[in-house]
Amino acid sequence: MAYRIKEIFHSLQGEGVHAGRAAVFCRFSGCNLWTGRERDRPDAACRFCDTDFTGTDGPGGGVFEDAGQLASAILDAFPYALDGDGWRPYVVFTGGEPALQLTTELLDALRARGCQCGVETNGTLPLPAGLDWVTVSPKAGTRLAVTRGDELKLVWPQEGLDPAGFARLDFGHFILQPRDEAGADTEGNAAHVAACVRYCLAHPRWRLGLQTHKFLGIR
Fold first, then answer.
1. Percent helix, percent strand, percent coil in the chain, to nearest 5
2. Residue 148 pairs with which residues in a beta bridge?
């Protein structure tokens, strides 16, 4: 199958349990909860996305004809040798929604080179076998197809969505991340941070998660 990729780049993971870890990010084009067009945002299932995932015109992006070709492009994005002593290079599949395109063939090709493979998904679609780390970020009004994994990262607050409804799912870590809306007023986003802090203090199963890449000024 052909893969439509918005961009491939090397950076530090900015969110969640692996925050600060160097990785190559492969951002798939397309999502099942929003078209990516601003005119469609008011009617989208996910209305607060802050990521450009449309098209294939980003750095390293393009249409890759098969898993081997895409795996080679991802491996080429690492700026260092991949035969590190006792560590595994990390690849993060994101989007958009990576579950629309991610395949076991691609994961196998990367794991054969010693890579650890993680995914950041909205959890509404099944995932292929072979992932080393699964992060699910639920969206209000959707039904989870992925109800177990390594990390549940809940962007909050979302109208009609209660963190308590997820706390008994089979995840190793529960992250509450303040909703940061592009173009929103500063006071509104600050109120989201305060709400998350209060919730984590009262419900210690949850950890506060911040988008560190935004205030560090990195991708």
1. 25, 25, 50
2. 170
CB-based contact 181:211 (threshold 8 Å): no
For residue 204, give the amino acid letter.
P
Query: Mutual orientation of helices 67-76 and 104-111 as an angle, nearest 10°?
Result: 40
Tokens of 130: 């072979």
User: At residue 184, does pLDDT exceed 60?
Assistant: no
> Please, which pLDDT band fits residue 175 given cuts at 50, 70 and 90?
very high
Asked whether residue 173 carries a pLDDT value surpassing 80, the answer given is yes
Going across the sheet that includes 22-28, the strands are 62-64, 3-12, 22-28, 90-94, 116-121, 133-136, 148-156, 170-178, 206-208
Give the number of residues written for the chain.
219
The mean of the pLDDT values for the chain is: 94
Distance of CA 4 to the CA centre of its chain: 17
pLDDT at position 85: 78
* Mean pLDDT along residues 153-166: 96
Instruction: State the Cα–Cα distance between residues 146 and 144, nearest whole angstrom.
Output: 5
Chosen CATH of 3-216 out of 1.10.3290.10, 2.60.40.10, 3.20.20.70, 2.60.120.230: 3.20.20.70
Give the residue numbers marked as catalytic.
25, 31, 46, 49-51, 120, 213
* Distance from C-alpha of 19 to C-alpha of 213, rounded to nearest angstrom: 9
